[in-house]
Design goal:
The chain is an alpha/beta fold and 969 residues long. It is 45% helix and 11% strand. The chain contains 38 helices and 25 strands. Strands 8, 9, 10, 11, 12, 13, 21 and 22 form an 8-stranded mixed sheet that branches. Strands 2-3-4-1-5 form a 5-stranded mixed sheet. Strand 17 (711-715) and strand 18 (723-727) form a beta hairpin. Helix 9 crosses helix 15, helix 12 crosses helix 14 (260-278) and helix 20 crosses helix 22 (418-441). The chain starts with 14 loop residues before the first helix and ends with a helix.
Length: 969
């Protein structure tokens, strides 16, 4: 007895799938005169009743019985139009009768062939047999088909991976989470788990499809889907990402001794959810949890990255909040300290910084500084460090201040004259001010760290008071005798700006200048701005040609250090007083401009009308390369006067009015940019009011009575009015409290920073010398702490030429080393080749291998130039900007890249990076250890113990000026 196979079960057909199938049939049977099409499918239709397919109007209806089919077809055929009726029915042909079938296309009911429909949608010619074996997949792909069909394939084969990846992305609602099908992985699944609606929709799928997708997700995403779906089965899917982050802390190797109880609690929690909702299943293993935790940590790290969207940032915060609740729920606080993601882990690292800082302040030993460096590094490595950047920055500043405090200190010896002192303020002490001001703002939460910051601030403040006391005595002697060779505020225009503007030749070829006076800019603020400009591809230069090493220059303000005196003297090029009108008249009419067009703009002429960043006059001047432009910006001075209050951030270019716009114009015109000030300032730091009726400013008064504690009497040709009494102690003031003050005799008020910049790649004015990194040695957070032994560098790979191995030599540290010249020592005696850098270069240049490399290089470079470059790089101890490298060899900056490429051909044997270009082509780095290895040179000598006296820089022009001061006195 034979049996007839049962007809296939009617499938539910999505709108896109049905429209695709109807369009295919209309194309195939375009010559048919019939206007009705029967399709066997689940008689449910939620799409539009009328549409246009294959160029013909189409009506789509569902008929739940044979009578309904007959009625729909009969009514439609009586209509006088050419529309095609599509009827979805689950009725068999035998139930419809021959009479009805004779009136429809092909006299039959078309059965949807699932895989043909799927292939048609993907544009495939064949289907992967492994996909065909997934019995549930065809119906699911038809049901989930998006409007417009599935993405078209590039090839002919529809693979299992492609089809199921597209289906899973659709069923998980990844599109609304901003995740593409190609991005579907464990991280995407964890993000999906935070969307309750998407989780609920997935749970509502038919059992076969849901189980099939879960199996496939386990194939591509490892262990994470197992845990996520266990939680989803128990109604706790939204906890998956937070729980994974917690597991990362609990299963961390460092937490092994304190996390066992909490680990057991997590495993029991997951098992309980599973058994309650899904019956008995295999127990989740440690390996599964570790993989799940790693995926969760990676996902949250991505959500916390810089540049994340607002939605990603909100999700990350919500996950962290829930993770902290789980820390409490599972008693995991001891393990949380090992997490790079949990907020409690960040606070634990703050605790560690507080403890190690407190110890380092007390002991100031190499070991305590090493501990502090490690604690700060671990804090900086936490993923929440960017979100807590202000707290991390203060910890870093505290470490820097400790590194400065352990250096030998003798205020009287360091302040050997006004010239050395103001230059040291630019080179080093202004950086101290910058770090100390950040530490003063303090820590918002941790009490131990608050106390440590206060103690550290007071130590640095006391040392600064000693420096200012010594400086006040030197300043009193200097003002009485005259400027000597020092660069004073009234000499900036003739000595720095005039050579650029007037030059010695014709107008053609001279460089336009932008001269910006940032009223009240201190050396601390200048250091911040200079670093930012360097990052923005401005190259910094020393604009003064002399025999000393290139450096950021210091200028001495006029006395008293108030705007009406010092700024007027700057623009007049002589000691005077005046306001904006007098400044403009003097500046624009100097004889040393030699007839060039020079314009000066003050506050009242800077702003433009609505929609214009700058005033018309200033814009016109900036766009004309023949006009040299001076601008006064008052943002810094105004913040002191009007009260910026407790500064919680650093000064940036964007904070200073129109400076960013001015720099944009300057870059377009290729202008040389000189940034300077008229005086510095001191900030209000819980100072003492010493009210005085004779006060001329908050920091100076008339000299009607002798100076008291914290005061100094200044008189002579450098003092406007001949004689004043000024405060040298930064903690004192004569007038009511403001955010900051000037007018006094402290180093921070008297020292004016001078910054000179060119757009990257510009030709360099005669006499200008490119500056290397200006940060002091103790500022570095990368170097080993003073006195600490650093790890030896890994030796280079052995070369095939069979050279003898070379010992790896540890890098120098702040406490290591040969006796360096003290910061302001006199020039050394005639040099001998005892400097290890000079020994290394001499060994290289006299080696046979170097001679062969030098001979084989097509472009010959004089050995003297090679020696100069290598010594400059070795002395720098790190990368140098390309223009600095070129300048050290006497090469023009525009030829720097080609010059360095030639050196690389000589030095980079077998392509080992002895000499490398870094920082996106802006800087050059020399690896001395690899240089010794590749050329078979002798090891570096061990460095002797610490030398007496403070480490510092070579003598400069300011030192010679101090000798002049002493001779004049």
């Amino acid at each position: 007895m034979s049996t007839t196979p049962a007809p296939p079960r009617p499938l539910p057909v999505a709108t896109a799938a049905l429209e695709q199938e109807v369009a295919r049939l209309l194309r195939k049977y375009a010559k048919s005169d019939q206007r009705a099409l029967l399709i066997r499918a689940e008689p449910v239709w939620a799409g539009p009743e009328e549409t246009v397919l294959h160029g013909r109007p189409v009506r789509i209806v569902a008929a739940v019985s044979p009578l309904a089919v007959i009625e729909q077809v009969t009514v439609h055929l009586e209509r006088d139009d050419d529309a095609v009726l599509v009827v979805l029915t689950d009725a068999e042909e035998s139930a419809l009768g021959v009479g009805l079938l004779s009136r429809v296309i092909r006299q039959r009911v078309f059965v949807v062939e699932p895989w043909l429909l799927v292939e048609e949608s993907f544009g495939a010619q064949q289907t992967d047999p492994r996909l065909l074996a997934e019995g549930w997949a065809a119906e699911a792909l038809i049901d989930a088909m998006p409007p417009g069909g599935w993405p078209r394939l590039a090839g002919a084969m529809l693979t299992r991976e492609t089809a199921l990846r597209q289906l899973a992305a659709r069923r998980l609602w990844l599109e609304r989470l901003g995740i593409g099908a190609d991005e579907l992985n464990a991280g995407a699944l964890l993000v999906w788990s935070t969307d309750p609606a998407a989780v609920e929709a997935f749970g509502a799928l038919r059992d076969g499809e849901r189980s099939g997708l879960r199996r496939w997700l386990a194939e591509i995403a490892g262990s994470t889907p197992d845990v996520v779906f266990r939680l989803a089965d128990g109604g706790r899917a939204e906890d998956a990402l937070a729980l994974g982050v917690l597991c990362g802390a609990l299963w961390a190797p460092a937490a092994e001794q304190v996390a066992q109880r909490s680990q057991g609690g997590v495993l029991a929690y997951i098992s309980a959810l599973t058994s309650r909702q899904a019956g008995s299943q295999a127990t989740v293993t440690d390996a599964t949890i570790r993989a799940f935790a790693a995926d969760a940590e990676h996902t949250l790290t991505r959500l916390l990255r810089e540049g994340a969207s607002v939605d990603e940032s909100r999700l990350a915060q919500a996950v962290l909040d829930r993770a902290e609740e789980l820390v409490v729920q599972f008693g995991a606080r001891p393990a949380a300290r090992h997490s790079d993601l949990l907020p409690s882990g960040f606070e634990d690292r703050i605790d560690e910084v507080a403890a190690t800082l407190k110890t380092a302040i007390r002991q100031r030993s190499p070991e305590s500084l090493t501990d502090l460096a490690g604690a700060v590094a671990r804090l900086r490595a936490h993923m929440l460090a960017p979100a807590q950047a202000h707290r991390v920055r203060r910890a870093e500043m505290a470490r820097r201040l400790l590194q400065w405090l352990v250096r030998p200190f003798d205020a009287v010896a360091l302040v050997s004259g006004v010239g050395t002192a103001v230059q040291a303020q630019v080179d080093e002490w202004g950086w101290v001010d910058r770090a100390r001001d950040d530490v003063w703002v303090g820590e918002p939460h941790n009490e131990t760290l608050k106390e440590a910051y206060e103690k550290l601030h007071d130590l640095v403040r006391d040392r600064g008071r000693d420096l200012n006391r010594a400086f006040a005595a030197k300043l009193a002697a200097w003002t009485a005798t005259g400027p000597g060779d020092l660069l004073t505020v009234d000499a900036v225009l003739p000595r720095v700006v005039s050579p650029l503007i007037a030059g010695g030749g014709d107008l053609e070829g001279l460089r336009p200048v932008l001269f910006v006076v940032l009223d009240g800019m201190s050396t601390a603020v200048a250091a911040e701005l200079a670093e930012e400009l360097r990052r923005q591809h401005w190259e910094e230069y020393d604009p003064l040609p002399d025999a000393g090493r290139p450096r950021r220059r210091a200028v001495v303000a006029a006395i008293p250090t108030v705007t009406r005196v010092s700024r007027a003297s700057l623009f007049a090029a002589r000691l005077t007083t005046g306001g904006a009108a007098e400044e403009r008249k003097a500046f624009e009419n100097h004889s040393f401009w030699r007839g060039r067009t020079v314009r000066l703009f003050h506050k009242d002429s800077l702003a433009g009308d609505a929609g214009r960043s700058l005033g018309d006059g200033l814009t016109t001047a900036l766009e004309d390369a023949s006009v040299h432009v001076g601008v006064v910006l008052n943002a810094i001075d105004d913040s002191l006067d009007k009260g910026r209050g407790r500064v919680d951030d650093v000064w940036a270019v964007a904070d200073i009015g129109i400076l960013r716009t001015l720099l944009h114009y300057a870059r377009l015109q290729g202008r040389a940019v000189i940034l300077t000030s008229d005086h510095g300032h001191v900030l209000e730091r819980d100072g003492t009011l010493r009210a005085d009726a004779d006060a001329g400013s908050a920091r100076h008064r008339e000299a009607g009575r002798p100076p008291g504690e914290g005061e100094v009497e200044l008189s002579g040709p450098r003092v406007a009015g001949g004689r004043v009494v000024a405060l040298w102690d930064p903690s004192l003031r004569y007038l009511p409290s403001k955010a900051g003050y000037h007018g006094g005799a402290s180093l921070a008020e008297v020292t004016i920073p001078l910054l000179a910049f060119l757009p990257l790649g510009s030709s360099v004015p005669e006499g200008w010398r490119a500056l290397p990194d200006q940060r002091p040695e103790w500022w570095s957070l990368d170097a080993h702490p003073p006195g600490a032994e650093g790890p030896s560098p890994a030796p280079a790979k052995a070369r095939a030429r069979g050279k003898r191995p070379v010992e790896a030599v540890p890098p120098p540290t702040l406490f290591d080393g040969e006796t360096a010249p003290a910061l302001f020592d006199a020039a050394p005696a005639a040099p001998t080749v005892t400097n290890p850098n000079e020994v290394l270069v001499t060994d290289l240049l006299t080696s046979e291998l170097f001679a062969a490399q030098h001979q084989m290089t097509p472009r010959k470079i004089a050995k003297s130039k090679i020696q100069s470059v290598l010594l400059a790089l070795l002395d720098a101890g790190g990368p140098l900007p390309l223009p600095v490298v070129a300048d050290s060899a006497g090469e023009h900056a525009v030829r720097a890249a080609g010059f360095v490429a030639t050196l690389q051909r000589m030095l980079n044997i077998d392509n080992y990076p002895v000499l490398s270009i870094t920082d996106n082509g802006r800087s050059v780095r020399l690896d001395p250890h690899l240089l010794r290895e590749q050329f078979g040179l002798r090891p570096a000598p061990r460095r002797p113990g610490p030398a007496a006296g403070p480490p510092g820089a070579r003598p400069s022009g300011s030192d010679r000026a101090d000798k002049t001061e002493g001779q004049s006195r």
